[in-house]
What does this fold into?
Amino acid sequence: MRLAVDTGGTFTDFVYREGNTLRFFKLPSTPLDPSQALISGVRSLAPKRISLLIHGSTVATNAFLERKGAKVVLITTKGFEDLIFIGRQARPDLYDIFAEKPAPIIREENIYGICERISPKGEIIKALTETELNKLSNWLKGKEFDSCAVSLLHCYANPLHEQMIKKVLENLQIFDISLSSEILPEFREYERLSTTVINSYLNPVMRRYLKSLGDSLQGIDIFIQQSSGGYMTLNEAMNFSVHTVLSGPAGGVLSAKFLGELLGENRLITLDMGGTSTDVALINGSIPITRNYYLDGFPLRIPLIDIHTVGAGGGSIAYIDKGGILKVGPQSAGADPGPACYGKSLLPTVTDANLILGRLLPDCFMGGSFILDKERSIKAIKNLTKRLNKTIFDIALAIVRIANCHMLNAIRKVTLERGYDPRDFTLLVYGGAGGLHACSLARDLGIAKVILPKSAPVFSAQGIYLSGFVKEISQTVLVPLEDEEKWKAHLRIIKDRARDYVKRWWSAEGDFLWEVYVDLRYLGQGFEVTVPLREPLREAFEEEHRKLYGFTLKTYPIEIVTLRVRVAEKRQVESLKIESQSFRAPCSKTKVYTEKGWIEVPVICWDDLRVDEILKGPALVIDRYTTLYLEEDFVLKVLEGQNLLLLRVNHV
It folds into this structure.
């Protein structure tokens, strides 16, 4: 059996297949040790049945955001010791004189500058001597650290000096080593340095977690989902943990792409609203991949699915700031203690607001296995009414609106701010809490169509289940486009490295899709454009350059900056039946509070809906792990697989 597991901040999701049916369930996450929820879920399925487990993990992300990573030493070229602190001149907010830099992940006294120098062409300007290596060895002997990052100037062009340092480290029995020439053999010193240090900061944390997981689940082949949408081996994840920082949300975008192909929708805005955050992405015919991502202020130059995250989830905490303004998030109540209605806290959250408004039924949460404490939600939000002079229902409505505003801003980031009109796209909403906000978000954006999948509560885990192995190998070359013989020779070397990797870890090459991408720029430009390799290459570059910048320079020389080879396991898009949750609602009608006051709405079980059935709002459509609040200006049509299509009435 193939099992996919997505560990979130509030719930851990499990997806597996029996026959032609995709089955799933959820368990509360265990934040102190995320593996406990995963192991409990595996054991409930009888581990002997499971042969392969693909895991989307938040361990690396949480360790970084909470600054609970390893104690790192950094070895870099002498004179560049402060680069990790200086960064680039660009600031996130140009006029904010109170802006603070992100909390550091390495101490100044743990950085060693070694005398060596390599040119951008790979020529050795100042050789690395035995004397320097002995000095480094003596310095390291006096340090206490968990891992070592090595990032030397221009080592992407010639990794010799980094390899020499690696031998010294291994002789000292230091084996947790991150070389920038292996992590990111590309130019731009700050980004390469930052990515390497982050990898070194996270490796020991991931290694402990994954080793413990492997020991607990012996006999099961475990793979780890990458941020780029495919998975890698357990051993790779231990050494290249930087590739796991967005592994869970990446699965959701993959799943959206698969479902979009089945439904004939290739222009999608994906919105994943879970318990802790909301993740948004734009699919305009293909999965959006970026190599320019900032993790809490630090650049990551790795391929990952372009996802924008905001702290607006079901567990986002509402509070009143010093100015007397109601705010929501980004802090979350998480799985423990959770929202007030979980019975462990008095933290007012978005979930509590939806419960008070009648959009969540207390007896239906988790299929009735977990009864929500509505009185506790009322008590928590009542604490906010004392300062705002509003009714508890108006405060709850305001909390939902503010959470919606955060999500709307996230959607605008990936659409309007990039030149796309959201009205030209279909909104695909998933995550356990997404259905409660789908109609409001679509209305505010002017979007006419919304899709809510039957598997919405575990949609990211479903994408992880459907994903395959992916590996990208890149190399900065800095060669004129006209020098075709030289850059094609570099490309052959990169392809050979990719083939060697596939032969080492996987089956025959025929099972994989091979893609080549090229980063190009006009000679002297500060940034490059990535295009798939096709002939004529100049025409492909200029077509993309015109699309991005509105002009081309017909006679100007073009430079090939970086070559990339991407190997992906071929996975067939298959229409699998989503299991019935066999859930029965305890009532046929309920009351929901809206801007117009209380209204009575029918309560409908998702499993009772039939293909092509039409339902006009308002209504609550309830399943074991999620609820759809169908607002009065929307109609619902049931698609194949019991996926739901929501249409605004004036657009039908």
Notes: The chain has 16 helices and 35 strands.
